[in-house]
């Protein structure tokens, strides 16, 4: 049976389906020789804030070779937006870029058709090629809010996976045992619970691992939930006679709910392309205990200020405004951040309603939950009831606690739900 051969790397790549052409980044590595001490110092610096590095001596040894390392980060375009949780690995990728290493942003357009089973208790629904292509195009635009486009090699794993024959795929699969694949916690839990585990899901770690073979990756970055997949890549690289990549995992950022990891599918994310007002408002909605973690992971806040946030010496409201302003400024600019803060304070602290608030006409009194549904301020009656019970609904500035409250147009005028949904109601 034929074994799959890695495709050539470092060459221009054209994705006709996305109408984007990306040129591999060419950059001279400034220093041809690196002492062991310098290599260790650079490895230590690059490992800062990482959750785990497998392994630090391997990273230092690769740096000591005196060549630009090939550093890979792969993302499946399963949703159109990147969010702040993604920026932890993207900024680490930028750290490598600033040290002169070759940065590869890999769009998993082929693996997205399978669906990453990581952290899933059920099989992901497949996406169409059209959905994947549209999402991939937004990804390759948004990453350059952080990465230098002239120094970034953007690749798509359909470039090699789409050309593999069944004999080559079998050749890759022959290098890993079923027992090794079933070591994955997600798979073990589903089998123990009697939930279905499909063969194509077992292929996902295999294909992600082969991406590192195809790209001859020296280092792979990913969240802590990707550790298994990245370790599979090390096994495959050994099987193909390559030096195994260093695995660097980054912490997962909790979403706005403070419980689950930030994810668009969980509805708890802050997207990089959210408007300044929406981004500012979402940061202001996080729970106080999350402020220190968000500040530490998403900004360059100094030690003294971070200590003040943790101790409560900095008032939580002021700390949150600084955090929101810093994040909005990074992605939209200082002027947009200042205006977003001013609008937030006018709207929520001074109880002023913005002049551009949408106006809706209602010709009769309505149950508050029904009104929220009609205005799309709540997706369902149960969600509307929950919002009322949580104190998130205000009429004319007064919090509504009675789930049976009726809104009377003419007698009542302003409906606010949460921090960002507001409307003027007229008869």
Description:
α12 (291-298) runs parallel beside α14, α14 (316-332) runs antiparallel to α15 (334-349) and α16 packs across α17 (381-389). With 427 residues, this protein is of the alpha/beta class. The protein folds into three domains: 13-250, Rossmann fold (3-Layer(aba) Sandwich), CATH 3.40.50; 274-349, Tyrosyl-Transfer RNA Synthetase (Orthogonal Bundle); 359-426, RNA-binding S4 domain (Structural Genomics Hypothetical 15.5 Kd Protein In mrcA-pckA Intergenic Region, Chain A). Mean pLDDT is 82; it is low at 1-31 and 119-123. The radius of gyration is 25 Å and the shape is globular. Helices cover 42% and strands 14% of the residues. It has helices at residues 36-46, 56-64, 84-98, 129-142, 158-161, 166-173, 178-181, 185-192, 199-215, 227-239, 276-284, 291-298, 303-311, 316-332, 334-349, 368-374, 381-389, and strands spanning 13-15, 20-22, 52-54, 70-75, 102-107, 152-156, 219-223, 246-250, 359-361, 366-367, 393-395, 398-399, 406-407, 414-417, 421-426.
Number of strands: 15
Q: Which CATH class of the largest domain applies here?
A: Alpha Beta
User: Major sheet: size, sense and barrel closure?
Assistant: 6 strands, mixed
Question: Could you estimate the helical fraction of the residues in percent?
Answer: 40-55%
Shape label: globular
Mean pLDDT: 82
Q: Assign the CATH superfamily of the largest domain.
A: HUPs
Termini Cα gap: 75 Å
Low-confidence segments, ≥5 residues, pLDDT <50?
1-31, 119-123
Please give the order of strands in the largest beta sheet: 3-8-7-4-5-6
Helical run tally: 17
Return the CATH architecture of the largest domain. Answer: 3-Layer(aba) Sandwich
Radius of gyration from the CA trace?
A: 25 Å
Strand content: 5-15%
Count of spatially separate domains: 3
* The CATH topology of the largest domain: Rossmann fold
Structural class: alpha/beta
Q: What's the quaternary structure here?
A: single chain
């Amino acid at each position: 049976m034929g074994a799959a051969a890695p495709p050539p790397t470092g060459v221009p790549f054209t994705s006709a389906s996305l109408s984007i052409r990306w040129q591999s980044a060419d950059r001279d590595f400034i220093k041809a020789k690196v002492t062991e001490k310098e290599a260790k110092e650079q490895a230590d610096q690059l490992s800062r804030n990482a959750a785990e590095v497998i392994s630090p001596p391997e990273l230092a040894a690769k740096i000591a070779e005196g060549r630009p390392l090939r550093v890979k980060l792969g993302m499946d375009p399963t949703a159109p937006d990147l969010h702040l949780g993604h920026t932890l690995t993207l900024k680490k990728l930028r750290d490598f870029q600033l040290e002169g290493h070759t940065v590869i942003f890999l769009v998993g357009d082929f693996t997205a058709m399978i669906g990453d089973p990581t952290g899933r208790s059920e099989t992901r629904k497949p996406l169409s090629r059209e959905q994947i292509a549209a999402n991939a195009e937004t990804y390759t635009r948004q990453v350059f809010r952080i990465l230098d486009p002239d120094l970034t090699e953007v690749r798509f794993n359909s470039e090699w996976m789409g050309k593999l024959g069944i004999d080559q795929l079998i050749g890759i699969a022959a290098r890993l045992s079923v027992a090794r694949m079933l070591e994955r916690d997600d798979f073990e839990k589903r089998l123990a619970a009697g939930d279905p585990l499909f063969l194509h899901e077992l292929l996902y770690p295999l294909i992600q691992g082969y991406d590192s073979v195809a790209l001859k990756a020296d280092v792979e970055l990913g969240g802590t939930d990707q550790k298994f997949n990245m370790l599979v890549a090390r096994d495959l690289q050994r099987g193909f006679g390559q030096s195994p990549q260093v695995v660097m995992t980054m912490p997962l950022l909790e979403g706005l709910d403070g419980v689950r990891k930030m994810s668009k599918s969980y509805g708890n994310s802050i997207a990089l392309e959210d408007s300044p007002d929406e981004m500012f408002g979402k940061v202001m909605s996080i729970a106080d205990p999350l402020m220190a973690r968000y500040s530490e992971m998403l900004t360059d806040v100094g030690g003294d200020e971070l200590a003040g946030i943790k101790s409560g010496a900095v008032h939580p409201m002021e700390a949150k405004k600084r955090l929101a302003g810093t994040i909005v400024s990074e992605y939209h600019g200082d002027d947009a951040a200042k205006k977003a803060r001013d609008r937030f304070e006018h709207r929520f602290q001074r109880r002023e309603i913005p002049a551009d608030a949408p106006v809706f006409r209602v010709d009769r009194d309505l149950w508050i939950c029904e009104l929220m549904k009609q205005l799309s301020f709540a997706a369902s009656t149960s969600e509307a009831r929950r919002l009322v019970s949580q104190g998130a609904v205000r009429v004319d500035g007064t919090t509504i606690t009675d789930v049976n409250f009726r809104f009377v147009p003419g007698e009542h005028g302003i409906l606010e739900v949460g921090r960002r949904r507001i409307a003027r109601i007229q008869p």
